[in-house]
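Quinone oxidoreductase (NADPH:quinone reductase): structure, please.
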Amino acid sequence: MVHAIRIHEHGGPEVLRWDEIEVGEPGSGQVRIRQTAVGLNYIDTYHRSGAYKLPDLPAVIGMAGTGVVEALGPDVTTLKVGDRVGYAMSIGAYAESRLIAADRLVPLPSWLDEQATAATLLQGLTAQYLLRSTHVVQPGDTILVQAAAGGVGLLLCSWARHLGATVIGTVGSAEKAELAKAHGCHHTIDYTRENFVTRVKDLTDGQGVPVVYDGVGKTTFLDGLDCLRPRGLMVLFGAASGAPAPLDLGLLAAKGSLYVTRPTLATYTAKREDLMASAADLFDAVKNGGVTFTVNQRFALKDTAEAHRALEARATTGSTVLVP
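Here you go.
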């Protein structure tokens, strides 16, 4: 028997329970991994609260982790016992050991730290598709990153700068401004003290930016549209402050024939070949210095409720790892 964090009902952090579970043997297409680290991501709070409904309870939540392969299903040929692996977007991560589909696992290069990878992999793959597929950032672009000191935000800042873009980022404090700058953000805007639309227009000589990356949602979405230049793209990839109100599509015409997309990592990595290509691009960026995998907070897995409280209070910066 091993332990896992499970929810028996939806609600606040108090519904997270440290339960004993039985993992069992891997079936067709599966492996069993002993987890070495688990990532904390905002999507976990949506599963816990019921904002994203789960089909069956009780359930182990969590979407990303790293571990070592312990056992193989009968038809698995791409991995072997002892391999170091990582994954993202596979629910069931908050556990000491788990079963998982082999085709969702990414072999880890020997030089990658497992805790930092677990904390950052989902966010890193998110940054990869946002910068390299949703809008292909080019040298000379100026982009806006909402919540630039968050986990995805810091990766977007550092990677976009490495790609030759000028990065404007919104933050909620002077401390977070310094953190964003240390990760490549050229211009920070403290939204508690400044109007970010006015500042973006000032920084772009009134032109606006070609793309806004927004993982905040309700409190930033509409104003973010006013930061775009004509035919610009609003990329809403999260909703930390809640979902935006329904959008009158006429606004997109009135504000300059704008585009809006609501992408997900699950879609961009649904095919095995896309997952592997995205991971390879991300790991290459880490190796070449464009992206840094770091851990800013560590919690014991059994203390996941405390980690959720800190995340939802915006008391964390960058990436957080849960250690079994």
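Notes: Residues 32 and 71 are 5 Å apart (CA to CA).
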